[in-house]
Specification:
Distance between the termini: 56 Å
Largest sheet: 9 strands, mixed
Helix content: 25-40%
Bound molecules: zinc ion
Radius of gyration: 21 Å
Structural class: alpha/beta
Shape: globular
Length: 430
């Protein structure tokens, strides 16, 4: 058995106390053996003057969209998708998805993220990068029926089921999958009715976008006479393992429905602010007992993949939404980006204790903006940045040591990302 000791850090425990301790990891099993004083491993990682947190879980993203970062900004969701994003995505080739995923996962590891839930296309490309990079992922093919004839729409849904089956358990179990119909308005009811039962037969959770903008809620109310999440429940969605992205425009009956069913909400505050989609009622969801995770959404609507930024955004907009400075506290957002996100997407990680997966980030406190350190939870929520992450460990393996990513070639990825992004835009606009 080879062991790794994370030494001398301020360890964030599941009850949000912070303890000066070492962490001993069984690298073959990928789990934490012990947390306590004076632990020695075959290898050591220095965590002195640093806080050791569970690895962050980015529970909703489109990781390969990094190639579109900064390509189109300052537009509402509808126009942004139709005028800029969808036409460019139509020109994407598998090699672009590969390098986009490499760039996104490189950025994720450098920001302490150890797991993602990703909805996109060409899932095999992303799966290969996840395998090489060493993170965990729940992957799915984004199914869309609008704008397609019946046969093409069915084929897309079938592809969604097939890739979910193909990649579930890949990368030594670090990859899991889900059936991912894009949203309640971009996939027609008949495809939910036909394919959600098939997803259930295969044991797949369902992940979709819902209630992101007012413009998404109104057509459902007009066409079906019910709120979107009642419509979703009628279509067989909202099982306890299901998780929906956004949930910005929810009424109290929908919040109750989420609490009753056990389905989770992934909050994407930066995307919601940037696209002026609205303010999600996060404190109300938490008060109702709904599991809330945190996600960056794609890099084109954020525009980075930093979970520490996202936590700060979540706390800020949560207070505004509730008109209450005590709402969506530092504790709440730290929980959201670790255990909340992990639970929402069905992972065991998000907690530092014996027996838990060895997924963690070490965050350097030797920084002007993190001095003094009255309260480390406060620092994680409000002051720490992705660039403060010193080491990232997932499944017991060191993915980044002293800011150097060991599993991906950073320089090469940056060069290829620039080249592929330029040629993608040329093809799309050509
Ligand atoms: Zn999204």
């Amino acid at each position: 058995m080879s062991t790794l000791a994370i030494t001398d850090g301020h360890v964030l425990r599941p009850d949000h106390t912070v303890e000066q301790a070492d962490i001993l990891i069984d690298q073959a099993a990928g789990t934490i053996l012990e947390i306590g004083p004076n632990l020695e491993g075959d290898d050591q990682l220095d965590a002195s003057n640093a806080v050791v947190t569970p690895g962050f879980v980015n529970a909703h993203t489109h990781i390969a969209m990094t190639l579109l970062r900064g390509y189109a900004d300052d537009k509402a969701l509808d126009r942004w998708l139709q005028e800029d994003i969808w036409p460019t995505e139509a020109a994407l080739e598998p090699a672009d998805i590969r390098v986009g995923a490499e760039l996104g996962i490189l950025e994720a590891i450098k920001g302490g993220t150890t797991a993602i839930a990703d909805m996109y296309f060409e899932i095999g490309e992303t799966a290969a990068v996840v395998e090489q990079a060493g993170i965990r992922a729940r992957l799915g093919h984004g199914v869309i029926s609008v704008g397609k004839d019946h046969e093409a729409a069915r084929e897309d849904a079938i592809a969604g089921l097939e890739v979910a089956e193909q990649y579930d358990g890949a990368a030594d179990g670090r990859i899991s999958t889900a059936f991912m119909p894009h949203s309640l308005t971009t996939v027609d009811a008949e495809y939910y009715e036909e394919f959600v039962p098939e997803a259930r037969d295969r044991g797949l959770p369902v992940h979709f976008h819902a209630n992101e903008t007012v413009g998404e809620v109104e057509p459902i109310v007009e066409d079906h006479g019910v709120r979107p999440l009642e419509y979703a429940a009628d279509l067989g969605l909202l099982e306890p393992e299901d998780f929906l992205a956004h949930g910005v425009h929810l009424d109290s009956t929908e919040i109750d429905l989420l609490a009753e069913t056990g389905a989770s909400v992934i909050h994407c505050p930066a995307s919601n602010m940037k696209l002026a989609s609205g303010m999600a009622p996060i404190q109300q969801l938490l008060d109702a007992g709904v599991t809330v995770g945190l996600g960056t959404d794609g890099a084109a609507s954020n525009n980075d993949l930093s979970m520490l930024d996202e936590a700060r955004d979540a706390a800020m907009i949560g207070k505004l939404a509730a008109d209450d400075a005590s709402a969506v506290s530092a504790d709440a957002v730290v929980e959201m980006m670790t255990r909340g996100s992990a639970a929402a997407i069905g992972l065991e990680s998000g907690r530092l204790e014996a027996g838990a997966p060895a997924d963690l980030a070490v965050i350097d406190l030797e920084k002007p903006h993190l001095t003094p350190a009255h309260d480390l939870i406060s620092h994680l929520a409000y002051a720490a940045a992705a660039s403060d992450v010193r080491h990232t460990v997932c499944d017991g393996q060191v993915l980044m040591k002293n800011r150097e990513v060991l599993t991906l070639d950073e320089q090469e990825i940056l060069e290829r990302a620039r080249t592929n992004a330029a040629s993608l835009i040329e093809r799309a606009e050509g």
